[in-house]
Amino acid sequence: MRRGAAPGDQHDAKSPARDTATPAAPTLRPPGTRPGRSEPMTSAYRRLWLALAATVALGVAVVVALPQLVSDADQPPAGEAPTLPLVEPAQPPSDDSAARSSAEQSLREFLRLRARLELANAHRWGEPDWSRAAGRAVEGDHLFAQRRFAAAAQHYGAALQTLETLEADREQRLAAALESGQRALEADDGAAAQAGFQLALLIEPDHPQALQGLERARVRDQLTGLMGEGDQAAQSGELESARDAYRKAVQLDPHYAPADAALQRVERQLADAAFRLAMSETLAALDAGRLTAAGQSLQQAAALKPDDSSVRDARQRLAQARQRATLDRLRTDAAARVRSENWDAAVSLYQQALALASDAGFARRGISHAEQRVRLHAQLDDYLADPARLHSPEPLAGAERLLAAIAEPPAGEPRLAAKLATLRSRVQQASTPVTVTLHSDGETEVVIYHVSRLGRFQTHQLQLRPGTYTAVGSRTGYRDVRAVFTVKPGTPPQPVQLRCEEPV
After folding, report:
1. Which helix (H) or strand (E) holds 459?
2. CA distance 126 to 26
3. How much is the CA Rg of the chain, to the nearest whole Å?
4. What residues contact 393, with CB distance under 8 A and at least 6 apart?
């Protein structure tokens, strides 16, 4: 018999007696959780593998120790010469040796695969195949110990095939666990969803979908409770309370479509209610002429539904009301400026009104009259600012024509009436001659420019309108003399002296 790796070499030599009872499925635990110092296998699972180890150890003892005992029995007593054995022809290996070698090979492959799958937590997610493989291996150990190597090889091979199938089905089991968790989530079964995703995490730790699903499953009961609160509040018309409940549900699980849909629905209802209230306040304020309040409430409505036709209609009504209000204000202000004869300000107000509404009748009529008054006051102010201008014939004639164009000043324009009266008085004064006395020596020829040649005289009086005059005296053999004098309205000037006394 070949000495080497026996079927039980990788079993625990201190394992208790075999127990072929099939272990129960292990309790699932999500990845990342830490049990105590070591997570014990279930009692059935431990008994199964300890029985397998004990059986293999017994087989090793029989297979390895028995040839040694036989060899020792064949040795001669001490002091006796050994008896040479009969030399028999070499025999080919027996069928038992080949069967044993096959069984050992199958066992080694089984143990290697089992160790690899243990690292992958297959003992926790691979039931019932994991326990079935263990049971077949234990039966193989029994048969090996009974030197029924061919049968043992079959059982080891069957155990190995079971684990190989289990390993090959790993992705399928993962997909099934994920699907199970997802279906449970869709059915709002938080406990079943947790179990499905925990199983998926045993198969593949840190799987993103499983981790997310597990988190969602853990809050599903709380989430469904919030959804119930929201639904009840919505049915009772308490939309704000319903909105708060749905918001909490969305915060718990942003991927829960019913919560998001319910939140959007109740927010639309709240927006509709707020819109109707804002529009109602807008129309009421428009009817009452409270345009500022109407604009504020309309702005609130437009923020909720900017493209609503009622918002457009209200905007048009508000714009028209504001235009009317502005025109009314401009009409009132312009009338006040007309009453105070502030024609420049009145013209400006009429211009603003026409810019706002070109067909504003009061502005079209008023601006014509106001502009005429602006021109009239400018002319009057020009004459009144420099009274001496009236002492010249052309300005005086112009003033007279201006006064003739306005027979009587309007009763409601006292400033205009005062200016006209002042100008009329000054024109009258400028038109009334004043007696002027001139003294000479009877030898000097006297001329008043633009008036007349007076000749020689001792004393001469004449009537002159107010103004400034130049008188010149001349005499043969003497230097000419010149006198400039001013005639003021209503007051005769000092006598004018004109004598040529300086010989040339």
Report:
1. strand 459-464
2. 9
3. 65
4. none
- Are 439 and 426 found together in one domain? no
Three-class SS of 154-166:
HHHHHHHHHHHHH
Query: 63 lies in a domain?
Result: no
Number of domains in the chain: 2
Q: Clarify whether residues 448 and 399 are in a common domain.
A: no
Q: Using CA atoms, how far apart are residues 148 and 446, in angstroms rounded to an integer?
A: 177
Distance in angstroms (rounded) separating the CA atoms of residues 62 and 14:
16
Distances (CA, A) of 379 to 215, 338, 426, 452: 93, 19, 15, 33
* pLDDT exceeds 60 at position 156: yes
Both 358 and 423 in a single domain? yes
443 lies in the same domain as 401: no
Measured at the CA of 38, the angle between CA 34 and CA 43, to 5 degrees, comes to 115
**In terms of residue numbers, what domain contains 449?**
434-497
Q: Is residue 445 part of a domain?
A: yes
Summarised one tens digit per residue, pLDDT across range 275-334 is 999 999 999 998 888 989 999 998 989 988 888 898 999 989 899 898 889 989 999 999
